[in-house]
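Dear colleague,

Thank you for sharing your sequence with our group. We've completed the structure prediction you requested, and as agreed, I am returning the results in plain text so they can be pasted directly into your records. Please verify that the sequence below matches your submission; if there's any discrepancy, let me know and we will rerun it promptly.
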Amino acid sequence: MSEGIRARDPRSSSVNSLPLILDVEDFKGDFSFDALFGNLVNDLLPSFLEEEADSGDGHGNIAGVDGLANGHLRGQSDASRLSQMSTAPSFPEVDGLLSLFKDACKELIDLRKQVDGRLNTLKKEVSNQDAKHRKTLTEIEKGVDGLFESFARLDGRISSVGQTAAKIGDHLQSADAQRETASQTIELIKYLMEFNGSPGDLMELSALFSDDSRVAEAASIAQKLRSFAEEDIGRQGVATAAGNAAAGRGLEVAVANLQDYCNELENRLLSRFDAASQRRDLSTMSECAKILSQFNRGTSAMQHYVATRPMFIDVEVMNSDIRLVLGDHGSQPSPSNVARGLSSLYKEITDTVRKEAATITAVFPAPNEVMAILVQRVLEQRVTGILDKILVKPSLMSPPPVQEGGLLLYLRMLAVAYERTQELAKDLRAVGCGDLDVEDLTESLFSSHKEEYPEHEQASLKQLYQAKMDELRAESQQGSESSGTIGRSKGASISSSQQQISVTVATEFVRWNEEAITRCTLFSSQPATLAANVKAIFTCLLDQVSVYITEGLERARDGLNEAAALRERFVLGTSVSRRVAAAAASAAEAAAAAGESSFKSFMVAVQRCGSSVAIVQQYFANSISRLLLPVDGAHAASCEEMSTALSKAEAAAYKGLQQCIDTVTAEVDRLLSSEQKPTDYKSPDDGIAPDHRPTNACTRVVAYLSRVLESAFTALEGLNKQAFLTELGNRFEKLLLTHWQKFTFNPSGGLRLKRDIQEYVDFVKTFGAPSVDEKFELLGILANVFIVAPESLSTLFEGSPSIRKDVQRFIQLREDYKSAKLATRLSSLWPSLS
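Please find the predicted structure tokens below.
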């Protein structure tokens, strides 16, 4: 802007006033008013600033001198300076700046007018150009619309021409195809006429049908001719049946000759295929297979290839299979050996099929169909051949003896063969078998065996059970014979102990059943079938365990019955000789020993019975229940059957436990009768201190009960134990009451009785039966009737009305009952005493 603005010197403004020169270009772009103003005044203001600086320096020096001389700034020099400044102008360039600003303002006004003029001119030019432009755009739009219409017409014509061309092309292609078909038809008719000559005459055929290098073409043409001839014969047959008498001679000769030629050609190709197969010439085999696929879709070639495999025609292969699985001839094969043999054989078969699959894939155009034929032939011939040797179905009417494996051997062989063959089917499926349902085919190999499997399984379990029972009876008989002849009293316990229930035997029953259930799960694929078979097999176990433990309990009861018979045999009257009484006492001791032995034997039987039942119940919960739950009602039905089957054993156990209680109470009664002395409870008044020990009878009874019930505490548990001990305790309490009524008591005898009762109380607390404890506690209270003075009897049992009847009976046992006239004294209180 400094170059575009030229101004006169302000100091010469009064002499010469030149106009400012401002350029419009200075206001374009990044315009700054400060820059414009600066460029206007820079020529005037620097000279003013220099003069002000010079005058300022002089005044300062004078002031300083005055200040230094006078010590202050005030003086005459200050007044004179002020007067001078008031007369001189304070801004000498102001006139020049005003003139400059006026000139600049005029120049700016002129420039604005110039710019406004130019803007008006430009607006007019822009308006004219815009009008021309709009006119041009309108004309262009009209031209574009015309072009679009032209293009649309052109596109329509092109489309029409294209459709016409496509139709022409289709017609040309159809015509060419018809021409080609006509040409081929002419050629086929010519060949057909050759075959329709003399019957069986194939010597006059074209060279095509005898040229080995054109076998594929000859086969294709022969098949076409044969198809055409057969269709023609079919049409002639329909026309003749409709009454068309004008039907001429057909193509029967051609069909016959074509059939002969196709057979001859097929045989020739099969021979070439066999020769190439022996040389392992896969390319020639593939070429022959491709040509043979035109004959009946190549079925003959595929079947011929499979049939000629060595594993189907070599007898040594079959013999080797049998030796591998069954071992040497004459030896009894075991399931484990057969399993290993089948695994090895099936692995060999899988490897062979895998090798054949590689060849089949390289040779045949439809390898999946060939693999299906091959795998089917393997299963139906090779696998079936070995299965027929392994699985010889036994007769249920006359099954093989257990010593030779019995029915169980057949079932184990069946399970092993089925499982291994299923694995083979999976391996063959992995190798490839086309559309063949190899699993279903494998199932069909075992269909006859699976149909009768449930009957064989149940018969096998029954056979095993019968064999086990025979074995146990033989062992028992052998043990009886080895023990020699023993007295009758001891023989009962010995015979019963040798036929005692064994948990090991029951566990063996469960193991048989578990093995059978495993096979059942293997052979039964449907839940309903599985549930039905499992239920039937588990029912066999229930029957076996029920019969076994029931018979065991009954045998143990026989010992109790024999001991009871011994006790009854040696019950004597009162008037017998001393010698007879001694012999009877000895026999009674023997009967007691037999009773105690039979009691312990029965408790052992009950314990083992409970363990056996628990094993069966645990087996049902762990293994059987989950197999029955998917079928509605199956689980509940099995539970009901289990309850019914075990109820027989429960009934036998209940009867035996009642007999055990009879045995114990009988022995306790014998001990009390033989050991209890009248002086025990009516000691003489001889001044000797009373005996505070329990009586000998009490000691013997408690010792006997402790010894004999030890087995009961071990054998019984839960509610069964509580019920048994409660019943025994109640019977024992009644027995004691009956026994004590045979004696007369004085006060010291009452104390002795109280000591016995305390001994009994301490013992029965081990029963854990609250009702029994309460009754024996009342016996201790009842013994007080013999201890207190007669005048205190009326108030003794006021708080225990439940034992009043026993009290009334026991009062009569007091030694002083008559002397103290207790009946009269208590008649008013207890009328029943009178």
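Summary note from our side: The longest helix spans residues 94-195.

Kind regards,
the structure core
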